[in-house]
Request: fold
Amino acid sequence: MIDTLLLLSLNGLIWGLIIALIALGLSVIFGLLDIINIAHGDFFMVGTVLAWFSLQVTGNYWAGFLLVPLICFVLGAIMQRLVIQPIRGNPALSIVATFGLSLILQEVVRMTFGATPRRILPPIQGTMSLFGIQYDIYRLYAAGFSIAALAAFFLFLNYTKLGTWMRAVRHDRDTATAMGVPARLVYIMTFAVGFALAGFGGVVAAPITTVDFRGGVDLLPVCFIAVIVGGLGNLPGTAAAAVLLALLEGIVQSFANPTLARITSLLLMSAVLLLRPQGLFKGFAK
Amino acid sequence: MSGRALAERGLLAVFVVFLLTVPWSVPLLLNPFWVSVIAEILIWSLFAASANLLFGYVGLLSFGQALFFGFGMYGVGIGIDHFGLSFWPAFGLGIVAAMAMAFVSGILAVRLTWHYFAIITVVFSLIFYFIAVSAKSVTGGDDGINFALPPTFSFGTVQYSFADANFQYFFILAAVAICFLLMHLVVNSPLGKAFLAVRENDVRASLIGLNVYVIRLIAFVMAGFLAGVAGALFAFFGRYASASYMFYTFSGEAVVWAIVGGAGTLFGPVVGASLFIVIREVVSTHWEHHSLIVGVMAILVVILAPKGIVGLWRDWVDTPADSAEIPAAPELRTEP
Amino acid sequence: MTGSMLKIEGLTKRFGGLTAVDNLSLDFPEGKLHAVIGPNGAGKTTLFNLITGLLKSDSGKVQFRNHDISGLKPHQISRLGVKRTMQIKSVFNQLTVAENLSITRQSAQRFLHPLRPASRDRQTRERVDEVLEQMDMTRLAGQTAGTLSYGDVAMLEIGMAVISEPQLLLLDEPICGMSPAETERAVAKILELARTIGIIIIEHDMEVVFGIADDITVLAQGALLVSGSPKEIADNEQVREAYLGRPEDEDYVDEAAHA
Reply:
């Protein structure tokens, strides 16, 4: 019993770190571009699929850790320019446009990758003993990669020119533009970075989940909920909410079936939304 | 009467004549299969109208209309399968269940607006989706409930039921037409104008004496009614009820149909639903990947016609709107 | 001696560490045109928001003609006949001028008919035409509010406040951003309205304030500095001090004092 609890909590925690990556991408796109990105779950899915292709081509899973985010970044930049830029500033239209993107991504994956879900073997096999249970080594690597990527993202936001521009545009678009920040470039980069984060999440997660063209559909609401529960625009809050939510689901899963766990976490989220609509962590982060 | 109003009247008349003659004209022109596709489009139009009433007229973006569609559907399915109800009580149960659910969830949901409202509607509908999936003994889960169709009317030995394709079509047409007529009356009434006031500027609306919360709740229950009728009709139409129709992606489709057709217009949802389902039906027989075309269409429409197809039509015929006109495509606030 | 129209007792509103309105007590007698002035951040708009229920006070009481209206919702207060305009003009942008007015008029009714066409309400239509004429906006009736000039939006907003026969009208910087001609027109309207309706006006244009107000209340940092007739205010040393550091406003006071 305790072992199951520990195992599922660890699984939840690690899954939460991956979701945090994806949700952060969603949050910056939302905060900067006013885009409700229905395709964001599919960005993650594309990451897992690209990881599969990258493994087929290079024969080395680790190559995907570099290739996939890069490809996603480029795809994101192109999509922003072609689809998002023309309808920017209108959240309602963004729903339809990204819904269209979502269909296109899923369908292209179904055409190329196929409709059958596949599994990828982790690049590192085996288990190690951790707190008295045998635990997959790759999952620990996954946690490490996610934490590193989260840290890199926050460093990027705070210490690079582009990151500073992004924060400035989000804070006050007009002033930032007046100060000479190239807003259009920032928009393109933001969307690209958001896609790249989700794609990276996909590479990290692919060996511990299935690669499936519908793989983003279940994930999307979870990411949105993390963004809202963490507090709109509160990036550390978003990351923390993602981890907490997944951890919570993991814990409940050790007592009840996964569906009941999902229902419990959804009920809790409704409570947070209704009682603290400004987010769970208001007052903690900046 | 302006040229535009005449053109619109003419188009409407052609449309009505077409709908009334579908069971005879369509098999002649295409094939009988399309009669049931058109019946399905009518049901989806009503479902999209439910999302449109909230988003287009009151400014609330709901991603949870599938919940009420599902309640309408299960009201009928469970009513017939578990309680042995006949047609009308089952129909009533579906609608009442949907409205009751809309009322209860609305009490909580309409306290929130914009992003928060969108998210809480997703969360509510997910909760009930998962409950429906796991309560297999009641709902049949993803497989759903199949039920035998009771007759709609029986006069002695003469029975009318959905087994008769023409009867089925006309019943659906009548039910959907009544709902659209009701919606037409509501959006032009003082209450409908109050909806617009809330959509345009909720602070100002409260300062002119409107109870914004109650108005949003009324709209939410009305939208629940529309989605519930659509769900109940779909249950009769398909002879089954299934949890898969309660998933959030399905709610999202209703929003997309409404916006592509023209949010805040009465016929926008009809146009949007027709467009997407006709594409699906035409392309899917030739090409498996019809979703690709639907995706490209959705993007093209919002880039080329941001007010939706009906909005584009109105701009194109273009005369200055008279005071009875309802402006298409609501102003969007990005502030919560 | 007329009675009190609006009475405020010990009203306090804090935003985090900032006290926007600080234990404020005011009394606005019936039948006068009151002006509330004060430097930026004095709490004028917050005061209006507290009176109209858009903000909840931390403590204190607001009484409108012996009704305790503190804690009521904005629509409840509006239905008692307290109407206001906003500093940032607030109308229904995508609707026409006539629709803005008719919706406002119909919203004052307790029951909104859900099925009868709104346009068939003849009484409302007549009242809309009346107000359009009163505001000199008849020619703009069919125009979308969002496309109006700034001054016309401000006039429309006043029209919306007036159409349901208010008892008390709160005007928050009604002429801010208007051209001189528009200002003249608006001031004339306000004076005309003041003959039948109690009016409290927040305004930065001191020339206007000292020209039209019967009473002036000066706020500074959320508290009452002084109130009195325009003459008393113009001669008051404290008022001059409150405006020091804001030479612009000081000039206005000087100008007004010597006007």
In short: Chains A and C do not touch (no CB pair under 8 Å). Chain A is about 75% helix and 5% strand. The beta strands of chain A are 118-119, 127-130, 133-136, 210-211.
